[in-house]
Amino acid sequence: MTDSENPLTPTAIRLEAMLFVAAEPVAPTQLAAALETTTTEVEQGLRALEESLATRGLRLQRHAGRVQLTTAPEFAALIERFLGLEATTRLSRAALETLSIIAYQQPVTRPQVDAVRGVNSDGMMKSLLSKALIQETGRADGPGRPILYSTTPEFLQHFGINSIQDLPPLELPTEAETQDVSLLKG
Amino acid sequence: MLPTIQTSYNVAIPVYEGPLALLLDLIERAELDITVISLAQVTDQYLTYVRALEKVTPDEISSFLVIASKLIQIKSEALLPRPPVREVGEADPAEDLARQLRLYKRYKEIGGWLEERQHQNLRTFLRVAPPPKVEAKLDLSGISLADLLDAAERTLAAEKEKQALGTVISAPKVTIREKIELISTRLRVEHGATFRTLLGEKPTRLEIVVTFLALLELVKRYRVQAQQETLFSDIAIQPLEEFREGEEFDLEFE
Predict the structure, then answer these.
(1) Shortest CB distance from B106 goes to which of A77, A79, A170?
(2) Distance between CA atoms of B174 and B169, rounded to whole angstroms?
(3) Do B100 and A184 touch (CB under 8 A)?
(4) Which of B23, B38, B141, B145 is most buried (most C-beta within 10 Å)?
């Protein structure tokens, strides 16, 4: 134990202890209340903890402003073996495509997803809902008040992503700079 | 400048998730950028593919036809010597479709990125164990080791009188003689009794049976008279003879 160069602040260490016992994603305000400190301080602590966890077996998952500890994605096979879990189901290309649209445009309605894909996504959305990768998160204003969908913490866990911010940037190339068409050629 | 489109390309083989997947594939196979011009260039191939779609449900084919109609409009507009006049704010269908296709392409790429992570099995897991249910803490303040010893001594002192483990304890014996003794004493003192009053607070089945046998024995010997008014009612017992103290009975059964 060479803790002499422990970079963690007292807040970060306390946050780690609290997140260990937390049964579900926790809001920084809850953590701040228990620590009797500000959410700014909690956010700083969380960032320090996140940094320190980067070389360890756990990760800090952020979803909808809440934080939770998960195992590191690179140990998925080990964890599955340890817990005796069946290999997880693989999603089809169409499912992945639909998920990526929802992930970037959330909260999003089904017609909005359809518009991007050019096909009806009803069955696909139902399948993703049943796998708990997406969830209903309200209704849009406007005619028919269509249901809004968002990704779930399970989505992050399935792909080993710490937060939606860790997805590749969407940055659409403009017409002038679409020189990289050969990228997808196989 | 653009590479020629392979006309021999058999579009009927691959299965596409939708019209945009098909369109994107046609453009990429032709090594074209997603532009208005390339859309017009692949229109014929697109239509060839759609014509080959026979065993597709009407629901699926409709989405292919929507794009087909857009492509035909784009291609026919491209053939016009002068671009069609549009009202202010009216969108150019070709630009719209190109934009949609570029967006779709990006999402398809991200879908591929997700697929790669899935393939590498980069899943994360949550703790499966529920958080421990912590009981309220026991207040042990002000309690010393001496208090603990005291408590142990008190407890063990009460145990001393108990028989050692391994001693067989048999069920208490109830005898007819004992019960005759009880009935005779009661009748001598109170000159009458009922069957229920002869039984204790919570009589065991054995006690009831033995007491009843004792009563029958005395009835047989004409020492008592028993009377029961109705079925299951209490039995009144009257002595027929005086009971002497310490009287002994010859009994057939104990």
Answers:
(1) A170
(2) 15
(3) no
(4) B23
Question: From the candidates A159, A163, A167, which should be mutated to test the interface with B, based on the most B CB atoms within 10 A?
Answer: A159
**Which CATH architecture does the domain made up of B176-239 adopt?**
Orthogonal Bundle (1.10)
Average pLDDT score, chain B: 81
Mean pLDDT across chain A, nearest whole number? 86
DSSP B87-122: -TTPPPHHHHHHHHHHHHHHHHHHHHHHHHHHHTT-
- Phi-psi category of residue A45: left, alpha or beta, with phi > 0 → left and psi -120 to 50 → alpha: alpha
Partner residue opposite A116 with nearest CB, options B103, B125, B128:
B103
pLDDT in tens, B187-216: 888 888 888 888 877 888 888 888 899 888
pTM reported for the whole predicted model: 0.62
Handedness of CA B51, B54, B56, B62 (dihedral sign): positive
User: How many CB atoms lie under 10 A from the CB of residue B114?
Assistant: 24
- Residue B133 sits at the chain A interface (C-beta within 8 Å): no
Tens of pLDDT along A17-30?
A: 999 988 889 999 99
ipTM, 2 dp: 0.80
CB contact under 8 A, B32 and A168: no
**Residue extent(s) of CATH 1.10.10.10 domains in chain A:** 8-75, 93-167
